[in-house]
Amino acid sequence: MPINELRSISMFAKAVELGSIRKAAQAQGVSAQAATQAIAMLEKHLGVRLLHRTTRSLALTEEGQQFLEDAQPALATLERAVNTARAGKEGIAGPLRIVGPKSSFAGILMPLLDAFCQAHPEVRPDVALDDGIGDWVLDRVDVGFRIGASAQDGVISRRLFPIQLIVCAAPEYLARYGIPTTIEELSTHRCSVFRHPVSGKVLPWYLTVDGKVEQRHFPPAFYSNDTELELQAVLSGQVIGQVANLSAAPHIRSGRLIPLLLSQLSTPFALHLYYGSRQALPVRVRAFLDLTLEKLRDSPELVLSEQELATAHEKVSQICLHGQ
User: Fold this and answer.
1) Does domain 95-323 have CATH number 1.10.150.290?
2) Deepest of 181, 197, 257, 266, by most Cβ within 10 A of its Cβ?
3) Taking the alpha carbons of 225, 308, 293, 213 in that order, is the dihedral positive or negative?
C-alpha cells in the first residue's frame, strides 16, 4: 500500500476521532486543506463516500462506518510498529546482535556484556562467535569484532588493541627441556601449532627478525584447532607455544608462563571493532560501542608492556640456577 494511502486512512480515522477535519489536520501537522484533500482522494480511490460533512460537523456514512471498523485494527498494529521502531532508536532496550572470533575471545567479550547488561537489563544480547567470515547484512549484525580489519565494504572499523604473539612456556617445560635463546633453537623443541578451525590450514609462527615480521614453521609436537586447548597444553608443560596476549597476559603476570625471545615478539594484527553506519544507530548499539571503546581501546589489562614482559622474562635466570 502506498504511503499516501496510509496517510489518508490515518487522517480519516483521526478526523472521526476528533470530530473535525481541521482538528485532525492540526494533530497530524498539516493544513486543513491538505487534510480535506487527503480524505477526498481516499474516497475517490475507494469509490464510496465515507463522511457526510458540513462546515460545522461531520458524520460517518454506512460505508465509512464499515471501513473504519475494518481499518482500525490495522492502524493500531501500524502505530505499535512505529512506536517499537522509535523506541529502538531512542531507548536502550531490545536485541543486540554481536559477532566475533571464536578463538580466545569469550573471555574478552563476557565482561563487557556483563557490565552492559547490568546497566541496561532490557537489552537482549544475541552473540555468534565464529572464526569464519559471515555476511554482515544476512546475519543482521549490530556490532562485530575481528582480528584484522573487516573484509566487507561499507563497514566502519575501529582499532582496539594490538595482538601480541608471544613465544612462551611453563616453568616446568623449561626446566625439563631447556630454554631456547634463538629462533634456530626452536626447531629442536616441542612446539605447538594452531590449525585454523575453518580452513584447516596450519598457521605459522609470526616472528620479528631484523625489524620485519617473518612467518616460520617448526616441527610440531602438538596440533590443535582450539586456542583454549593449545593454551592448556602450554600451561601443562607439554609444549612451548606462540600464544596471543588475549590468552597469555594473565598467565604471564602470574608466573605460570614465561615469555621468551622477546626481541622476536610480533604484533602483526590488531583486534578491530566494526559496525555499519555512523547515522541512525539505535541507542543500544551506540551505548555498547562507547563502552567497548572505553574498556578495550589499548587496554593495559590486555596489552603487556615492555617492562612487564622484561620482568616476567627474568624468571628464566631462576630456572637456570635451579637447573645447575
Assistant:
1) no
2) 257
3) negative
